[in-house]
Amino acid sequence: MDMMDQSELQEILEEFVTEAEEGLEELEQNLISLESLAQNGETDSETVDVIFRSLHTLKGGAGFLGLIRMQELAHAGENLLDEIRSGTVKVSLDVMNALLTTNDLLKELLDATKNQEDDADIETEEITKTLKVLAGDDDAEAEEVVEVVEVSEPVEGIEINEDLIA
Fold first, then answer.
1. Chain segment 104-160, per-residue pLDDT in tens
2. What residues contact 80, with CB distance under 8 A and at least 6 apart?
3. In Å, how far are 9, 17, 56 from 12, measured between CA atoms?
4. How far apart are CA 84 and CA 49, in angstroms?
5. I want to staple 62 with a disulfide (CB 3.0 to 4.6 A). Which of 11, 36, 47, 70 is the partner?
6. Packing angle between helix 125-134 and helix 68-85, nearest 10 degrees?
7. Following DSSP, what letter does each residue of 53-64 receive, concatenated?
8. What ranges make up the beta strands (E) of 45-165?
């Protein structure tokens, strides 16, 4: 198989951008629908499936074109949706905020691709980690930060019963 020439690659990229823009618009509408259902304590498996497929399609196209950050973000969102589909994760305010933020960042990444701009300043690591934590990925759990407070003076007024520690 011959290598694709630059014009063929550009054509594929332009087609991907067009389809991805449409997909992200549809994704946003479905997220808004899911959010309004969730506010009433409801969910709709069909809407969840459509959102899952949108992210899955975007992930595949981004991966094919080597758009790694877009692929990883879509993949993390897809995994969260998979956990929602299986009933492991409930649609909550945190879940909806994370998915809506994901949609916004995917649009930003797509715009950068469309305009042939560097996407390095688009912050995706934090939301990717949030998606993984919400999906129950134990490896993504944030390390607990323990603040160590040094006491320069001994605390007065506490009496210790020496018999209890001996």
1. 999 999 999 999 999 999 999 999 999 999 999 877 654 433 444 454 555 555 555
2. 89, 95, 98, 99, 131, 132, 134, 135
3. 5, 9, 18
4. 10
5. 70
6. 20
7. HHHHHHHHHHHH
8. none
Look at residue 139 in the predicted model and tell me its pLDDT.
72
Angle at 120 between CA 118 and CA 123, to 5 degrees: 135
Tokens at residue 7, please?
Answer: 């014009």
pLDDT in tens, 45-100: 999 999 999 999 999 999 999 999 999 999 999 999 999 999 999 999 999 999 99
Residues near 51 by beta carbon (within 8 Å), at least 6 away in sequence: 27, 30, 31, 34, 81, 99
Question: Is this structure's pTM higher than 0.90?
Answer: no
Angle between helices 68-85 and 45-64 (to 10 degrees): 160
